[in-house]
From TrEMBL:
GO terms for cellular component: cell outer membrane. Residues 104-227 form the SusD-like N-terminal domain. Keywords: Cell outer membrane, Membrane, Signal. SUPFAM superfamilies: TPR-like (SSF48452). The keyword Membrane applies. This is Starch-binding associating with outer membrane. It is found in: Cell outer membrane. Residues 365-535 form the RagB/SusD domain. Pfam families: SusD-like_3, SusD_RagB. Its main location: membrane.
């Protein structure tokens, strides 16, 4: 049975009356900022609300993990052959593919700003809480809220490039900030979190706090933000806040002192790849994950499930242990072929219809069929053919189904990423860190290769395939590098019919890899918000 945690405490206590028209959302409860935030318990409830906001980021629209794979060279748009072409628009960076999709990320934009508002309100009200003997909690809660805010702004600034920067509730119709200002705020928030969260090792973290951010999560995310910002914007440091030496020092601290490590068998990181041998959520390799629960319920309105996971599933088809889904992000055969057959990550990451001898009979329902699907994140069924998540929920008498009750967590940062980032930033142990990741992948077939920028990027491609990382790794090497890697002309099956699929480098270059700002938000702002080039 899956345990509940802070994420499942749904605290809807925020009245969003001061967000400005273009960030307007409905009231979430009858509690107000005037009559709340007086006790540590109320502050904790508000913090739970911040985590719940993060959990709900992708409950509508296009999820960041799915979109990131579709943008990359790992996957195509996919989905049903009779569906609209919104995912093809994203995949090909071409709005003419679905001209009516003017706000494909509309729900995402709203959910990000809702969750950021929760963090901003909590941060603004910490001083009015009577902490008593719990004064240290104030700093801890501030650090957690600032981490969550930084995490969300990092998603947003990568997606859209130009976004309003709100660090307090405001009724102003503010314009988009310079990306450097957003990154400076992200860096400051993460530095504060890294310096004010306790350095509790993985083995000593209480089970009750799993899912809450840690010092190690803050330090690891600093490394990721540093590498992306300095790469994409061609800067020497992270917005004048974090230097290369400091970014490396944060990562080395995680490696030396966090107690995190690699799970011995790569397949055991993923439920569908290991089934009975799954290492479990909150395993030693997980540094930060977004938590989900099977307790979503149509009747009660409880909405804690991983709704986006179903998008990766086999189109309208189940084959133990893989459950029914919507066939989004069909895996590009280039990714399957990039792996050596001795690399255990190949079959642990990708479902191969032919190699696994799956009698898939829904090709006519699938758009951009390639014969390959995502294995790391996919709905699962038991041997009786029933949804694992729905069965868990049904045992509690909940009114649910597989579409809303998926509970696999999204692992944002793994320890393997910390090792490879530290190697990339020039650690004196770069070769050893690089070898650790590859030794697990190849086992007895391992042979050492020199650690170089080229070999590191290829290793990241194979290690983090289909985890929402590849696209951003490409972009930080330069728009031209990303465009060349993603552009291709190939054949796919649309409804079982061979069809030419084309992605042009010109479209990626035109958009600079950024996405469409929801047109509805531009309209609500009376034109204060400006659309990104190419959209």
């Amino acid at each position: 049975m899956r345990k509940l945690n802070i994420y499942t405490v749904v605290i809807s206590l925020l009245v969003l009356s001061g967000c400005g028209d273009f960030l307007e959302t409905e009231s979430l409860s009858t509690s107000t900022v005037e009559n709340y935030y007086k006790t540590p318990a109320e502050a904790y409830a508000a913090l739970a609300g911040c985590y719940d906001g993060v959990q709900a980021l992708w409950s509508g629209g296009v999820s960041f993990p799915v979109a990131s794979e579709i943008f990359s060279d790992n996957a195509f748009g996919g989905t049903g052959n009779g569906d609209g072409f919104g995912y093809q628009m994203l995949d090909e960076f071409d709005k003419s593919r679905s001209p009516s999709d003017l706000s494909v990320f509309g729900a995402n934009w709203t959910n990000y700003y809702k969750a950021i508002y929760r963090c901003n309100i909590l941060l603004a009200k910490l001083d009015q809480v009577t902490w008593g003997t719990d004064e240290t909690l104030k700093t801890t809660y501030e650090a957690e809220a600032r981490f969550l805010r930084a995490f969300m702004y990092f998603d947003m600034v990568r997606l859209w490039g130009n976004i309003p920067l709100l660090t307090e509730a405001s009724a102003e119709n503010i314009p988009q900030a310079d990306p450097e200002a957003v990154y400076a705020q992200i860096a400051e928030d993460l530095k504060f979190a890294s310096e004010n969260l306790q350095a509790i090792t993985y083995a000593n973290q209480p089970v009750a706090t799993h899912g809450r951010v840690t010092k190690w999560a803050a330090e690891a995310l600093i490394g990721r933000v540093y590498l992306y910002y300095t790469g994409y914007y061609q800067k020497a440091d992270l917005a004048g806040v974090v230097t290369k030496a400091q970014a490396l020092a944060y990562l080395e601290d995680v490696i030396s002192n966090s107690g995190h490590g690699l799970v011995s068998d790569f397949a055991n990181l993923w439920p569908a790849a290991s089934v009975e041998n799954y290492a479990g959520e909150d395993n030693q390799e997980t540094i930060f994950a977004i938590k989900y629960s099977y307790t979503s319920d149509y009747t009660s309105g409880n909405d804690d499930g991983n709704k986006w996971l179903v998008m990766f599933g086999l189109r309208e088809f189940s084959s133990y242990p893989y459950g029914n889904g919507w066939g989004g992000a069909t895996v590009n055969s280039k990714l399957w072929n990039a792996y050596d057959d001795t690399d255990t990550r190949k079959v642990a990451s990708i479902i191969s219809i032919d190699n696994e001898e799956i009698d898939f009979n829904k090709i006519e329902a699938q758009r951009e069929y390639t014969g390959y699907y995502v294995k790391k994140y996919t709905p699962m069924i038991n041997k009786d053919g029933k949804s694992v998540s729905a069965e868990e929920a049904a045992a509690l008498g909940l009114n649910t189904d597989f579409q809303i009750s998926q509970f696999q967590d999204y692992v944002v940062i793994r320890y393997a990423d910390v090792l490879l980032m530290a190697a990339e930033l020039g650690s004196g142990n770069a070769q050893a860190y690089f070898d650790q990741v590859r030794q697990r992948a190849y086992g007895t077939s391992f042979s050492q290769i020199p650690v170089t920028q080229e070999s590191l990027m290829e290793e990241r491609r194979l290690e983090f395939a289909l985890e929402g990382i590849r696209y951003w790794d490409l972009l930080r090497q330069g728009i031209g590098v990303a465009a060349d890697a993603i552009a291709e002309t190939t054949q796919v099956l649309n409804g079982g019919v061979s069809t030419t699929k084309q992605i042009t480098a010109a479209k990626i270059l035109e958009t600079k890899g950024l996405q469409q700002i929801p047109n509805a938000q531009i309209s609500l702002s009376s034109g204060v918000l400006k659309q990104n080039t190419g959209w």
